[in-house]
DNA sequence: CTTGACTCCGTACCATGGTACGGCATTTAA
DNA sequence: TTAAATGCCGTACCATGGTACGGAGTCAAG
């Protein structure tokens, strides 16, 4: 089954411009244009865009997705490497966000115990 | 004490261009230029840039920092509001990263138990 | 008094992931 | 058959947080 670009976009819930953008980024190949008429997008392309969106959902950047796609028929160990790198990046980000949460929470606690509206502990904490 | 832009940059460990960028963004005011010669940056500006960098460290965007700076002499409750918004954004991001961590971890577990190098469970999970 | 280092300023460019627009071609429904 | 709706394509633009560059002016050391 083949579809026009806007049908593909509708089916996948993405913007038409996003599909064009992926073509420009060579994440998908643009179907040949018939001598006259509109391009037809094969199911393979639809699946590929779905793949891209899922991988993005796993936190991969488009560059990394390109990498994954090129690894399609490659040894599992290479994909694993990429995923492991991603996982440690995620763990680092989690750690730093947890610290941030802590700091914000304790600053807000100070605010709650503060009676002087004109002097904010948060502003104070940011000053030298 | 006053300093040239590159001394300020060195003291703060930031790029000279970053200081100019903050001036363009009106996060700091550019000191008056002497009739002849180079600008001198007062300590007040150095402190302000330090404030910006600390607030960034708390996860505030430059727009939010501008907001904080404008709230400098304002009621604590307004700063609190901003910080509370930030905190819930952080909590949301934490939740979504935790989910991501889970998914990556279980996909990697599948890889570890996989004997078929040519068929990767991760690639498989991304396909329709 | 020259040379090298620094400043000033406007402007352009970087990554990231898209979004928007304008003008023309084509298709589809009335 | 004709008008509205889509497609095609190049290009420009969005936010975010800077970084780089080129050609002046200026300063400080030798």
Tell me the layout of helices and strands.
The structure is a homodimer of 128-residue chains.
Chain A: E1 2-3, H1 5-12, H2 16-24, E2 41-42, H3 43-57, H4 62-70, H5 76-112, H6 121-126
Antiparallel strand pairs in A: 1-2
The first copy, chain A, binds a DNA duplex (30 and 30 nucleotides) through residues 4-6, 15-18, 20-21, 25, 33, 36-39, 56, 61-63.
Structure description:
2 copies of one chain form a homodimer. With 128 residues, chain A is mainly alpha-helical. Chain A folds into 2 domains: 1-61, Orthogonal Bundle (Multidrug-efflux Transporter Regulator, Chain: A, Domain 2), CATH 1.10.1660.10; 74-128. The first copy, chain A, is built from 6 helices and 2 strands, in the order E-H-H-E-H-H-H-H. Chain A has a two-stranded antiparallel sheet. In chain A, 20% of the residues are buried. The model of chain A has no long low-confidence stretch (mean pLDDT 88). Chains A and B meet through helix 3, helix 5 and helix 6 of A and helix 3, helix 5 and helix 6 of B. The structure holds a DNA duplex (30 and 30 nucleotides).
> What is the gyration radius of chain A calculated from CA atoms?
23 Å
What is the chain-wise order of helices and strands of chain A?
EHHEHHHH
Strand segment tally of chain A? 2
| CATH fold assignment of the largest domain in chain A | Multidrug-efflux Transporter Regulator, Chain: A, Domain 2
Q: How many alpha or pi helices of chain A?
A: 6
Largest beta sheet of chain A, briefly?
2 strands, antiparallel
What structural class do you assign from the helix and strand content of chain A?
Answer: mainly alpha
